[in-house]
Structure formats: C-alpha cells, structure tokens
Amino acid sequence: MERFNAANKASILGILGNVILLILKASIGFISNSQAMIADAFNSFGDVLSSLLTFIGNKISSKKADDDHHLGHGKAEYIYAFLISIIMLVTSAMVIKGAIVTYLNHTKIDFSIYLIIICIITIVVKFGLYLYTREVGKKHHNILVEANSKDHRNDCFITMMTLISSILGIYIVDIIIGIIISLWIAYTAIKIFKESYDVLMDKAMDDITEEKVLEIVKKHDEVLKIQHFNSTPVGYKYQISFTIFVDGKLSTFESHEIADSLEKEINKEIPEIYLSVIHVNPMNVKQKDK
C-alpha cells in the first residue's frame, strides 16, 4: 500500500506540474515563434500523458492476485511504461518535423522576456519533481516513477538549452536546439522501451540477484546439487524455480521440509523475489562424489 500511495502521489504531482508548464510553454512558444520552446511544450505534453499513464498503470499493478491473474497485476507497470515510450517517440518525431518545416520556411524568433521567465520556472519545477520522483522510484523499485524521474531530469537540461537559445535569439541555434531536444526525448524513450520490453518478454533476472539466491542454497549442506534454475519477471519482482537434489535416503517429508525452508529463507532475504518454487529429487550420495 505504501508503494502504491507514493507512486500515486508522484504521478498526481507530475500531472499538475506538467499541465501548468505545458500551457505556459505553448503560449509563449507560439507567440515568439521559438522552435525550441515549442519543442519543450510538446515535451511537456508528453510528460502529462506519461504522468497520467503512470497513475493508471500504478493503480492496476497494485491489484492483488485473483482467479484470472494468479501472479498479480505487476506487469501492468511495464505495459504502461511501454506505452509511455511510444508516446515519447511519436512526440520526438513530431518535433523534428516541426523544426525542419521552420527551417525551410525561415521563421524568425520574436524575442520575449517571458521566454526567459518560463525557462527559469520550468527548471525549478522540474528539478524539484526530479528529486522527489527519483527518491520514490529508487525506494519502491517502480519503473513508471523511475521513467518519470529520468524525464524530469532530462527536462532540466533540455530547458537550459532552450534558455540559451532564447537569450541568443539566433535562428539556426534555435532550430538546432529544437532537434537536440527531440533526439534527447527519443533516447530516453528507447531506454524505457527496452527495459519494458525485456520484462514483458520474460527476460531472466540479472546474474547478481541469481547469485544471491544460489549462495543461500549452497549454505545448506543437505543440498547436493542444483539444476534447472529459471526466473520469470512478475512486475518489478521475480518468480524463480529450480530443482535441488538431496540424499535419497531421506524421507519424502524430510526432503520437502528442506525445500520449504529454503523457499521461506529466499523470499525473506531477497526482496526481488516474489515467489520461489523448489522441486526436490533424490540422489545417491555416491553419485555426487563421482
């Protein structure tokens, strides 16, 4: 519940902040014909959608397991993060197109002190959102909030470039910065896309986490051998399964008691694990020595 409430608060703050910035940027950008500011406004529009999708995805992913979803709804985070990356890529393409059209039409920038003011406001707001969402994302391992955090961070640098463009007021510099903004949006989108895609395609857990699991198992002398280790992402956690071999002379109850104890220990010691399923096979101790 704490994880859900924290992500929910972060997404609502993101929506409110980005809506205000979108209105301010779009108004000043179109009045002054600043391609960099218009690009920044498009970026804020994408941020509004991203924060909205974060809110929806967080609400769905927080639902508990049911008869139709035995492992819960955790992957909803990655489905919505995937959608966010698509929106960002489309936004990037639209802004690049706008920059090219502006270049071909030789549209001039009408300098305005309001361009400077909006840039400064954006940097302050975005940096505040970045610090807050970064903390929430890291604490709760939430890809949606982490994606928003990276977006807020990127916006700080992007708006700094817009600020430079507005101060200089040079036509070609404005065009170049507008394209740089677009490429930055695309770069961030591709990173989010890949991370979401990996989870949705059931990419195995990283080697470090797997080694943590195996270290726990190897501490138990009763386990003679480990085979068939598999891991499947369940939202931001993993379901793991593997087979352990124990002395064939042990009773069925004793061997399964070892597996049950291991499952509880792994689930307790490693927060990345959602569920552990351990199969038990008997083994001739002499075979191990060979």
Describe the 3D structure.
- The protein is mainly α.
- The chain has 2 domains: 2-200, Cation efflux protein transmembrane domain (Alpha-lytic protease prodomain-like), CATH 1.20.1510.10; 207-289, 2-Layer Sandwich (Alpha-Beta Plaits), CATH 3.30.70.
- The protein is built from 9 helices and 3 strands; from the N terminus they run H-H-H-H-H-H-H-E-E-H-E-H.
- It has helices at 2-32, 35-61, 76-105, 113-140, 143-168, 171-200, 207-218, 252-269, 285-289; strands at 225-234, 237-247, 273-283.
- A 3-stranded mixed beta sheet has the order 1-2-3.
- Helix 2 (35-61) packs antiparallel against helix 3 (76-105), helix 2 (35-61) runs parallel beside helix 6 (171-200) and helix 4 packs antiparallel against helix 5 (143-168).
- The longest helix is centred in the N-terminal third of the chain and has 31 residues, at 2-32.
- It is elongated, with a radius of gyration of 25 Å.
- The termini are far apart.
- The mean pLDDT is 81.
Descriptive labels:
290 residues, mainly alpha, 11% strand, Alpha-lytic protease prodomain-like
Strand order of the largest sheet: 1-2-3
Largest sheet: 3 strands, mixed
- CATH architecture descriptor of the largest domain: Up-down Bundle
Count the beta strands.
3
CATH superfamily (homologous) name of the largest domain: Cation efflux protein transmembrane domain
Instruction: Specify the overall morphology.
Output: elongated
